[in-house]
Structure formats: C-alpha cells, structure tokens
Amino acid sequence: MIILTNDEIEGLLKMPDCVVALEAAYRDFGLGDAVDIPRQDMLVSNRREGAVHSFKTMSGSWPRVGVAALRLNSDIVAWPQINGAPRRVKLAVSEPGGRYNGSVLLFSTDTGQLLCMFSDGVVQKTRVGGSSGVAAKYLARTDSKTMGLLGTGWQAEAQLEAMCAVRALKLVKVFSPNAENRQRFVERFSSRLNCEIRAVNDPAEAASEVDILVSATNSMRPTIQPEWLRPGMHITSVRGSEISAEVLRKVDRLAVNTNQPVTAYPARGWPSEVPEFTNGDYGRPDIGLIDYNAVPELKDVVAGKAQGRQTPAEVTCFHNYKGLGLQFAAIGSIIYKEAKQRGLGLGVEDSYFTQTVHP
Length: 359
Prior knowledge:
With 359 residues, the protein is α/β, with parallel strands linked by helices. The chain has helices at 6-10, 15-30, 121-139, 154-166, 179-190, 203-207, 245-250, 298-302, 325-342, and strands at residues 2-4, 35-45, 51-62, 67-78, 81-82, 85-86, 89-90, 102-108, 114-119, 146-150, 171-175, 196-199, 212-215, 234-237, 253-256, 263-266, 316-319, 346-347. β3 (51-62) and β4 form a beta hairpin. The protein is globular and about 65 Å long.
C-alpha cells in the first residue's frame, strides 16, 4: 500500500487525461456499469463561535479499472462575511501549523485490498474542474473561443485548465473582488495556457460577449446574473448557491452532476444555525421551484440517454452543485497507476491494513 501527498499527486495529473477518465467513468455510470454513493455530512458543535465540525464521506466504484474510492473529510467550517457577502470557509486549524484534513482511500475491486491513500486537495479541484470540462464537451458550442471566469482561487484554476482542454479558447476574462488576486492569477496562467488571459474590473465585464461563463467561488449568494445570458452561451458553477433559480429558468438546456441530494445529519436541530441549509450544500431556494428529478444528469448525457446541445443558439447550463465519489475513483486510478510506474509514495506493509480475523 502506498501513501501520497498533494505535492506528489500534482505531478501525476494532467487535465486532458483527467477529463478522458472522468468521461469514461460517467459513461459507465450512465450505463449501469459503475456505482456512486452520494455525499453524507455529520455536523456537530465546535468550540469556535459560528463554526461546526463537518465529517463528510462519499464513495464510488469503477469496475472497468478495478478500483473503488472512499473520500472523507474532517473539516471545521464557518460562514464569515467577506466583501459584504457570506462565504463558506474551511478553517485550517489542525496541527502542525494550521492544516486541513481530507483523504481518499483507493481499494481494489478484485481483492478488496487497500491500494493507496492520498490527500484529497489536488484531486478535489481536479475532479470538479474535469467534470465541468466533460459537461462543456457536450453542452458548449464546439466553436467556443471566449470565456468569462468569476473567481481566482483553488477551484478557478482547474475550471480554466479543463475548459482549455475541451475547447480552443482564445480569450479568458477573469474577475474576482481582489485586484491583486486576479492580476496574480493572470500572471500565473498566461505562461501556461495557449490563450490570452485578461483581468477585468467588473463581473459583468467578465460575462460580456463570452461563449462560456464559469463561476468558481465560495459565495453563498448568486454570482451569475440572469441579464448576462445570451444565445449560444454555456454556463457552469462549482457551488449550487452561485446560480439562482431565475437564471436556471432562462436556460434552454440544463444538466446536473447528480440529482441526488447531500444528506446532512446535524446535532441538536442545527439547520436554523447553519447557512448551508438556506442556500448552500444542504438546501437552496431553487429546490422546489425546479424539479431536479426531471433534469438530466451528466452521466445520462455522456451515455447518450439524454441530449446535449442541439442548436448553436441554445443557452446551456451544467449545474455542478454536488460531487460524486465516483470522480475520486476515476482520478484515483490515474494517480495509482502513475505512482506505481514512477516508484512514488511512501510504501507501507499491507499487513497493517489487512487481517486474518473475519471482520
């Protein structure tokens, strides 16, 4: 069994390869040849005011490559006001020196054995960005050349890389509230990608006259405005709270990552105290206004059971508001194969993770 860090993982993953793996996993899932267990969160009190301990799990099995993945997080979560709006923030308070806690366990579907354990940070952003890339392959116009990007953080990086992997973009306009952050983002990625990346001073300017519009923030309020939509545009997000019901009603074709809800198990009746139950991972104003059971899931679009874009004029949307454990199996299969080939990771005796006693 091997253990890998984020630094080791980052050198193993290339976004085009991840998009290919995720597309194949979604196709198998849509055809009934892969399995996903939706995310579940436990919420209990924390000694920090306004914060909770969130214990999160999700899992998926992809027999085609012989792996099953369990992703788990032990997070301290708070919802501070930043730039006048509430944000969902994970607090880096674990020792030493302020760190986060998230891991993926990768098992063999042939022997049941634990093959690999790795940090989930790099994989987290890669599987979200890569899935948006898969959706754009089926929903964005094939001649898309311009993109607007709201956000310059961790998730925004992967969204940019994924869209460039599936469309020959020439211009990306980037906005975030912090001018220094957006300029730093532009400088970082201008040398990496074969397109112009331009910082803009207003979110509406980022959205103006673009073929693809992506919001990749941790905002608890909508970031994409209905008046920005125009014929032929494709939009997507990384959080359910970023796209309002008004926007969703205006699109011509909507697909979701999954219509299975996140199940939250709060202690002592906490929904009234956790903003996520109002507009976030556990509840949103658009639930009830839109019948998500009638909305195609990405797996069905990829498997050919639901239609992708049909005309150049359609406004399409991939509402990427829930993650899948299967995504970690897809990306994990790449990580394990590459790490074994390169001799990377900390090797640990398998007897520590197997037993002779019947469990």
